[in-house]
Specification:
The complex is a heterodimer.
Chain A (H helix, E strand, L loop, with lengths): L2 E5 L8 H5 L7 E4 L11 H6 L4 E3 L2 H11 L1 H37 L4 H40 L2 H15 L3 E4 L2 E2 H10 L2 H5 L4 E4 L1 H6 L2 E9 L2 E10 L7 E5 L1 H4 L5 H11 L3 E5 L4 E5 L2 E6 L2 E3 L5 E3 L4
Parallel strand pairs in A: 1-6, 2-3, 2-4, 4-6, 9-10
Antiparallel strand pairs in A: 1-11, 7-8, 10-13, 11-12, 13-14
Chain B lengths: L4 H5 L6 H9 L5 E3 L2 E7 L4 E6 L7 E3 L1 E2 L5 E7 L5 E10 L2 E5 L7 E4 L2 E7 L19 E9 L4 E9 L11 E4 L2 H8 L1 H10 L7 E4 L5 H4 L4 H18 L9 E6 L1 H12 L6 E5 L18 H12 L7 E7 L5 H12 L4 E7 L5 H6 L1 H8 L7 E2 L1
Parallel strand pairs in B: 13-14, 13-15, 15-16, 16-17, 17-18
Antiparallel strand pairs in B: 1-2, 2-6, 3-4, 3-7, 5-6, 7-8, 7-10, 9-10, 11-12, 12-14
Classes of the chains: A alpha/beta, B alpha/beta.
Chain lengths: 308, 378
């Protein structure tokens, strides 16, 4: 079975080096696109991992392809604009549904009616989340359809070079950072084939990009809580899990009502906190080892994630 | 050893050495829960506490401690408050306003400096202070040949750290820009919020006026200057995002009026406004009582309230609870919301001053221009 190792943020606890022992003793392909301008500065990683590291440079390659092919650049920009509009419209609708779900829970009256109203309010949010993911997927698919028509030699060349690098790297490392950039770059470079069947070590944003749906969250923005929102589908190699890196810093984990709504909203997927020092190991999609991660349960309680 | 205030004030006729000991062992003003005690030492006929807080008597008289040259006055102050004050020392028929000699905390403003009283719970936000780990933006001077004013005006332009011409940026235009820089640490705040990914990298044009009470009070020449001339020059020189949601006007006091006025005359141009302690005076009944400088402001705000139109899509307002303008700013919320404009009003236990405006910058800028922190999971 393919080994996948998931970690929490690498500060203050750095457990990357120990986790790397589970990867084959062979070069590791690094995707550090989530670091944006700092992509490729992997000297610190090289000190932690015994394997040779090969950064795939997906940002740099994408920028090179866009610079060489105006039509590709314009098509990509148009896709990004559409995704931004979609996210904004989804957010507008979702916020109202979240307010309704919370108010229903707080309202007085017959408990059976409140339970039913709450159940339906959560179902409405789930439906909207699903619609949003499907619409985002359609926009991505349309873009890739357009790409086939464009037959961009510049992009094809970059993809070919990535595939060549991957031939000598049996395993993959996905860093934390900007999850939107990471997910977009993975998709541009046809991540699906090279994520399947390859051991992967990922932390924070990298872990989020491997799940079914990427969920953005922060209860402590300058304006206070911001409703969690689905960004887009992830690679889906670790299904039925939603990862919350840095949860104890970004979420009000003691707010049971809020955690209950979170867990209910994303059910049947399991909501898993990934704080610094957390480590999960999967064989394929099966959890085989867990430490430090917590499961957010319906009802709002937290308990250590365990192997079932 | 520190002598507690209560103990000291109960001391019968303390000696000069006792006074010295008391002053050396305490920080002033003395904050004990909601009670704040101001102390002045010196010969005088009378001493008053002067602070500029709406609804609070302008002068609070000190009492002399018998047998000493020490004066004190205590006031009740809500937690989290921040007020600026001076002492009025009256001696020999002369009155003099001075900063509190015992309090090193000062707030500068264009008129000099005031002493600052920080009530229990107030802390200067960490993001307003310069940090070694934060890369600074760079500054350029840009001249604008203004047909509206018939003269050359200069802008200070802030470019974010790691500025690249190949990228496009949102634009923020700031009224009273030099004062925002000097008294509200705008440059430091921009550097910090950008570094922390709380706002995207912004290009910021800082404008100043040689006659702000005229030009910022609803003057069409100023609107033309900002919307045509400044915007034109900025578009020509810098890579800006061509989207009204990526353009913001900002200002405080009359600068907020100028921002609203320019956006009101040019709907669809600036869909972000950051308006602090706006001097949004109006007169529904009779004549306003705010003095002649407010005549054109009131005329504009009255017109605005009659037909607000759609000056912007998203407006951040902030105002101090200790300002007389709090009523006008609260009124503005409803006026804007009735036009389906998204509005956020932040109220603070502070007054009409630059540090209040500084302390609200994070809320305003991050609400109008949310940064990528939301997307970053390290």
């Amino acid at each position: 079975m393919t080994r996948r190792i998931i970690l929490g943020p690498q500060r203050p606890v750095t457990n990357l080096g120990g986790a790397a022992a589970d990867l084959p003793d062979a070069p590791v392909a690094v995707v550090s696109a989530a670091w944006k301008e700092a992509e490729g500065y992997i000297e610190d990683l090289a000190e932690l991992l015994p394997q040779k590291l090969v950064d795939l440079g997906l940002n740099r390659r994408a920028e090179a392809a866009f610079a060489a092919d105006q039509r590709l650049r314009e098509a990509h920009q148009e896709r990004q604009d559409r995704l931004k509009d979609l996210q904004r419209l989804y957010r507008l609708r979702m916020r109202q549904l979240m307010i309704a779900a919370r108010q229903v829970t707080r309202d007085g009256g017959a408990s059976d009616l409140i339970d039913q109203a709450r159940h339906e309010a959560v179902a409405q949010i789930q439906q909207l989340d699903r619609q949003h993911v499907a619409q985002a997927r359609r926009i991505h698919d349309q873009f890739h359809e357009e790409l086939r028509g464009l037959e961009s030699a510049a992009l094809a060349e970059q993809i070919h070079e990535v595939e060549t690098l991957l031939e000598s790297c049996p395993s993959l490392l996905l860093t934390g950072g900007n999850v939107a950039v990471l997910a977009n770059r993975l998709r541009l470079f046809n991540d699906a084939p090279w994520l399947q069947g390859r051991p992967v070590l990922a932390w924070s944003a990298g872990a989020m990009a491997l799940s079914d749906n990427i969920v953005l969250f922060n209860d402590h923005t300058p304006q206070g809580r911001r409703e969690p929102e689905v960004l887009m589908a992830g690679a889906g190699v670790l299904p039925d899990l939603v990862f919350f890196p840095g949860a104890s810093r970004r979420l009000k984990l003691n707010n049971r009502r809020q955690m209950d709504l979170l867990a209910s909203r994303f059910a049947p997927a399991r909501c898993v906190t990934l704080d610094s020092g957390s480590r999960l190991a999967f064989d394929g999609a099966s959890l085989v080892a867990a430490s430090g991660a917590m499961l957010i349960e319906r009802g709002g309680e937290l308990r250590p994630l365990e192997i079932s | 050893m520190t002598i507690p205030l209560k103990t000291f004030l109960q001391t019968a006729e303390p000696s000069p050495a006792d006074v010295d000991h008391f002053l050396a062992g305490n920080r002033f003003p003395v904050v004990e829960g909601r009670k704040v005690t101001f102390i002045y030492r010196g010969e005088a006929d009378a001493v008053n506490l002067r602070c500029w807080v709406a609804g609070f008597a302008a002068a609070q008289p000190f009492q002399r401690l018998a047998g000493t040259d020490l004066w004190s006055v205590s006031i009740d102050l809500a937690p989290g408050s921040r007020i600026e004050y001076k002492f009025e020392v009256i001696a020999g028929g002369q009155s003099q306003l001075i900063v509190d000699p015992l309090n090193p905390v000062l707030a500068d403003d264009p008129f000099g400096a005031n002493s600052v009283c920080q009530a229990e719970g107030y802390e200067r936000p960490i993001w307003t202070e310069e940090r070694d780990d934060v890369r600074q933006g760079s500054w350029e001077q840009v001249a604008v040949d203004s047909g509206a004013f018939g003269e050359r005006r200069n802008l200070q332009v802030y470019l974010p750290a790691r500025f690249r011409r190949s990228r496009s940026y949102p634009l923020l235009i700031v009224h009273d820009g030099s004062d925002y820089l000097r008294y509200a640490q705008l440059g430091v705040v921009l550097d910090n919020l950008t570094h922390d990914l709380e706002i995207p990298p912004l290009i910021v044009a800082l404008s100043d006026s040689p006659d702000r009470l005229t030009e910022y009070s609803g003057d069409r020449r100023h609107a033309q200057f900002i919307c045509n001339e400044v915007l034109g020059v900025m578009n020509d020189r810098y890579p800006l995002i061509d989207d009204s949601r990526s353009r913001c006007l900002m200002g405080a006091s009359f600068g907020a009026v100028a921002s609203l006025h320019a956006a009101w005359l040019n709907p669809g141009l600036f869909d972000r406004l950051l308006l602090q302690s706006g001097s949004f005076a109006f007169s529904d009944i009779g004549r306003h009582q705010r003095g002649p400088a407010f005549d054109p402001v009131v005329a504009f705000i009255n017109r605005f309230r009659e037909s607000p139109g759609h000056p912007s899509k998203k407006v951040f307002l902030s105002c101090g609870l200790y300002e007389s303008l709090i009523f006008e700013n609260r009124s503005m919320v409803l006026t804007l919301q009735q036009q389906s404009i998204e509005v956020l009003l932040e109220e603070a236990r502070d007054a009409h001053n630059w540090e209040n405006w500084r302390d609200r910058l994070r809320s305003g800028l991050t609400w109008l221009f949310p940064g990528p922190a939301w997307m970053v999971y390290e």
